[in-house]
Amino acid sequence: MTTVPPPFDPELAAALELIGDMISPGMSPEDIETVRRSPGIALLAHVDLTADGAFEVEDRTVPGPEGSPEISLLICRPTAPAPARPRPVVYHVHGGGMVLGSNRVGVDQILDWARELDMVVVSVEYRLAPEHPYPAPVDDVYAGLLWTAEHAEELGGDPERIVVAGASAGGGLTAALALLLRDRSGPRPLGQVLLCPMLDDRNDTPSARQMAGLGIWDRTANETGWTALLGELRGGPDVSPYAAPARAEDLSGLPPAFLDVGSAETFRDEVVAYASRIWQAGGVAELHVWPGGFHGFDGFAPQASVSRAARAAQLDWLRRLLAE
Q: Are 91 and 32 in contact (CB under 8 A)?
């Protein structure tokens, strides 16, 4: 099988050249601490959370999983007068390969949705691997969702209209959250938004091999992230679907899903397979594979034509979901 990679979109290739000094595609375990302190990661978390006064911002500490520390939720509520019906809520899980980031990473995109669709935003802080391996991250995400559902009305939100969303590792944790909520008969999200999600610890798809050394997150970095989360279990037969959702045998009964991924990124094939398996299980999913897109392209190069198309598709899906 060929390992020749698909080409990057020309506008995105130019953006990759500009950010190449800040972000390299391969990250080893020894690099984790350095990357955590890097300017690139700090830049990802630097955003005006009020969106020029459109949101009231609060950091709130809430109970974590039983026997575990409390967790921090970033809550952004629209400052506009409350509508007659409680607002929908988007519950956000940040990315970072399971080893990086905070509840402020990626929230600018979520705030764009919320501003356009008049939504409350809740972004969860979860413990990071390798200091806190599975199940700590997903347990924190689950505890935060339960608190959000129980207190949605207090936040001006509708507990029956919670959309769960995440990108990269956050997309994988969001998919795992949907599985947990189904299997534990928890609150049912209205929908799940999985943006370039990190789903499969086996790290052995054709796209993972094609994109080695390219983009911003390659097979080496992926192995680092999954090994941090799972240790010696990574790639073996005993990995839980709540750690790696691609391992789930049954994808029936899940909330409607929106999935998107670039054609030129490590996660392409596992995301396409996950959407296909949702359809095969009788579920609802909308899948977009963006030509020439690298991992997280629309965040790093938002002005590129393909990025604008991707953001428009996300917003359109959310608008249709909330109108049902």
A: no
